Every structure is written in structure tokens, then in C-alpha cells.
Amino acid sequence: MKKIVTALTASAAFATITLSQEADASEYKVQAGDSLWKLAQDNRVSIDSIKKLNNLKSDTIYTNQSLKLQDSDTYTVQAGDTLSKIADRFGTNYRALMEINGITSHLIYPGQVLELKETVQAPAPEPEEVVEEVVEEEETVDVYTVQAGDTLAKIGGRFGIDYKLIAQWNNIENVDLIYVGQKLSLVGEEAVAEEAEDDYVQEIVEEVTQVEETTETTSEASEEVIEASEVETIVEVEAPQAEVEVVDNSAAEQAEAERVAAEQAAAEQAAAEQAAAEQAEAERIAAEQAEAERIAAEQAEAERIAAEQAAAEQAEVEREAAQQAEAERQAAEQAEAER
User: Fold this and answer.
1) Rounded CA gap, 215 and 263, in Å?
2) Residue 303 confidence (pLDDT)
3) Domain presence at residue 295
4) Looking at the 3D structure of the chain, how many domains does it have?
5) pLDDT mean for each 10 residues of the chain (339 residues)
6) Which long-range contacts (CB under 8 A, 24 or more apart) does 308-316 make?
7) Calpha distance 102→320 (Å, rounded)
8) Tell me, what CATH number does 268's domain have?
9) Residue 127 shares a structural domain with residue 191
10) Measuring CA to CA, how many Å separate 244 from each of 115, 170, 192, 232?
């Protein structure tokens, strides 16, 4: 286990820090049944923006995978939004949003950009305070078992290995597809060969040393002959054995690679079927919503026509009443004149 000791020096200046109201709202943990299309619809962003933020090469995502859904600490108001809805979506409350954005009423409009976090000044730290921090590196391993939420990039970053090399060493064609419980080799064939060669050389050195110790009383010439003889014998006997072991390991690795490839193909097929089912369900819901909107529009039109007709009839009744009143007034005036 290696240890690295670092010294951190704090300066006597004001630093600006960002405080989130809740947990980072741009991070989302994938749930069962989620898809990129569903997440994009729910969060009113595009599938391409989610893939770009998370360096996704395909549309396949996994349960418990952490995804970034927003690229900043701001949100652009959409039609139908309210402060309460926005606050619920990002794990805060509408009063905090009003305070952060200097809003005095609940009135917002589409296109308005709202800040989701607030910035405050931290107090100045003590000058020239030195703190020693001990960081322990994780123990290196040759084989790693995939855990929930892992990706090749995460595993490579953890052990300081390029994820493309891990994919190459384990015969993985789709670098975005691994599964929980999968065993990954973190040591390439060249490293294994070098380690075997080092062990082999070390064995030779130990044998030679042992021969030297047992022949200290003999002459220098005899020692040289014995050493040469021992080294020659070891090379002739041990080398074929090492070669057999390499062949056996290659066969086992090939079988494991074929098994992993079959499991990956099955996982991709299941993901494709799930995506197709979700797309079909989304289209069905959209069709039902369109039909409901059409029926509502027809109902509204019928009510408008009925209202106009009722208004016209009322106007006609009032006009006839006015004519009747006028006729009665004229008749009264004529009777008065005749009298």
C-alpha cells in the first residue's frame, strides 16, 4: 500500500463558493424502466444533449447509472411551468427560487432564465495554515468484479488504466456494455509475460546463488563451471513448462471471451426490445392524448355555437319587445290626440 503526503496552504483572501439548495439537481440515478427518450421528455431536453454530457456512445443505459441531465446551474422556463413545479423538479422550494432570482411575485414567463443555486462569500481562512493530508492509494488488483453503476471509464480512472485497454484485454466490443458481476482483467498479456519472465529470471538467480553457497570451498574455476551447468539445465527444463502454461491460459481466456460476448449480445437484444416497447407505449399515449384534445375541441366548438345561438335568440326577443313597447306608445299618443 503506497502513501502520498501532500501539504495544503490556505491564502488570506476571500473565496467565492457555490452552495446548492439540495443535492446536485443535474445528477440523476437511472431507475428501472427508464430510457434516454423518457428522461429527455421528462426533463425537456434532447437525447443528444444527455449523451453528450455523459459521453454516451449508444442509447443504452443501466439501472443505478448516474447521468447528468442539465449542463448548468440555470433553468429556462417552459410553457406550463410554475415556480412550485420547477422547485419540486430540482429538489428545492419556490421561496428559495424567488429569493435567488429576486422575484417578488409568482409570475414567470416562457423563456425566462432562472438561477437554481446561490453564490455566497466564504470567510477568509487563517493565513499560512499548513495542513498535512495523507492519501492512501487503493491496492492494485489484477482482476476486478463489476459493481452496480460501474462503467469502463470509471474503472479505468480508479485504477489509472485507459478504458480502451481494459476493453481490448477482455475482448469487449461495445465499451458501453458491461454487467454486474462480470470479471475484468486489469493486466494485459504483455504485463503477464513480463511478470512471468521476471519470476523465471529470479528463480535462475536463486538457483545460481544456492550453488555458489554450497561450493565456496572449491576453486574459482570449478564454481564457474558449476554455475554455467546449472543455468543451462534450468533453462532447458523450465522454459517448456512456462510455454505450456501460456497456451493453457490463452485457451481459457478465449473461452471466457466467447461467454462474455454471448452475454453482451443477449443484453443488447434485451435493451433493444425494451426500447421498442417503450417507444410503442409512448406513441399509444400520444395518440390517446391527441384524440382527447380533438374531442375537447369539438365540445368547445359546440358550446360556442350554442352560446351564439342563445345570444341571437335573446337579442330577437328583446328587439320584438322593444317594437311592441314602441307600438303601444304610439297608440297611446294617438288616442290622447283624438281625445
Assistant:
1) 59
2) 93
3) no
4) 2
5) 35 34 60 89 82 89 87 77 87 89 88 74 48 48 88 88 89 89 81 59 67 56 45 40 44 86 92 93 93 93 93 94 94 90
6) none
7) 60
8) 3.10.350.10
9) no
10) 66, 21, 14, 20
Question: 178 and 242 share a domain?
Answer: yes
Q: Do both 79 and 118 map to the same domain?
A: yes
Q: What pLDDT is recorded for position 263? A: 92
The answer as to whether 293 is a domain residue is no
The grid coordinates listed for 161 are: 488504466
Q: Are residues 91 and 212 in the same domain?
A: no
Domain boundary among 92, 115, 136: 136
Sign of CA dihedral 199, 200, 205, 208: positive
Which residue(s) pair with 144 in the sheet? Answer: 184
Cell matching residue 188 = 494485459
Three-state secondary-structure class, residue 144: strand
Ramachandran category for residue 146: left, alpha or beta (phi over 0 → left; psi -120 to 50 → alpha) = beta
One domain for residues 113 and 175: no
Q: Are 9 and 125 in contact (CB under 8 A)?
A: no
C-alpha cell at 256: 471466457
Amino acid at 3: K
266: cell is: 443477449
Cell reading at 249: 491460459
Distances (CA, A) of 143 to 186, 190, 247, 318: 6, 15, 20, 93
Domain of 127, in residue numbers? 3-136
Residues 101/114, Cβ–Cβ less than 8 Å: yes
Instruction: Please give the helix or strand (H or E) that residue 13 lies within, else none.
Output: none
Q: What is the pLDDT of residue 25?
A: 44
Residue 305 lies in a domain: no
Tell me how far apart the terminal alpha carbons of the chain are, to the nearest angstrom. Answer: 129
Decide if 303 is inside a domain.
no
